[in-house]
Specification:
alpha+beta, single chain, about 25% strand, Split barrel-like, about 50% helix, globular
Length: about 100
């Protein structure tokens, strides 16, 4: 069972997809193992991980990325996503 209601999950997904689409793609490229992805959108989350739909090679694939630390509150989700974004940016910069 998740600590997050469906309404909260939808609010977080809407915010990520509307305001942080580039971060979603960065996370999926680096932490999701999809370096060739051309687009990504958050589709859900629970206490175990965050879900994305990733576009690559003209098709869409569902992927799940586990949290580094299991969130139990909404603010912890924000901190985890910020951590994932920073880690992903650094990983991609090192690949260049």
């Amino acid at each position: 069972m998740t600590a997050f209601t469906e309404d909260v999950v939808q609010q977080i997904a809407r915010h990520m997809n509307d305001d942080h689409a580039a971060d979603c793609l960065t996370i999926c490229r680096a932490l999701g193992g999809r370096p060739a992805a051309t687009a990504a959108r958050m589709t859900g989350l629970d206490a175990d991980g965050i879900d994305f739909a990733v576009t690559e090679k003209g098709g869409e694939t569902a992927i799940r990325i586990p949290w580094g630390e299991r969130p139990t509150e909404r603010d912890q989700v924000r901190r985890e996503v910020v951590r994932m974004t920073r880690e992903s940016r650094a990983a991609l910069a090192n690949r260049s």
